[in-house]
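Write out this protein's structure.
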Amino acid sequence: DHDGNRVPADAEERDQVSVAFGTGDIVGEFARETVCLSLHEAGSTGRPVPENGSQVEIPGTDCTRVRVVFATEMTSEPFSAFEFDGVLGLGLESLALDPEFSLMGQVARLGGPERSRFGVFVSLEDNVA
C-alpha cells in the first residue's frame, strides 16, 4: 500500500494515488518490483534484503527493490497519443512519493552504476534480453 506494507492477495480494495503527468492524470495502485542492472538467470541465488519486517530474496548485488505505481485509469489526453506504455521515474528523489519510488536513488544505495551511463530496454516479449 502507500506506506509500503504488504496487501493481502484477496483484498478487495487497495490504496490508490492520483498523479498529474503533463496535461493528463493517472490513477494507480502501489506495488513493489525488483530491478536489476544486468541479466540474471531465473532461479539464480541472490541475497536477502529486509522488507516490511521480513527478508525478500533478490537475484544479485546489482538488484534492488523499488516501489512503483501501476496505472489503473488514465486520461485519454495525452496518453492515447503515446506509443509507449509506461513512464520510468528518473527524477530527483525529493520529488518522488517516497524515496523508495526513486529508481536512481535506490540504484545509488547499491553504490551506483559502474559507468555514468544508464539505459532502459523494453520488449514486447519476456524472453529477450
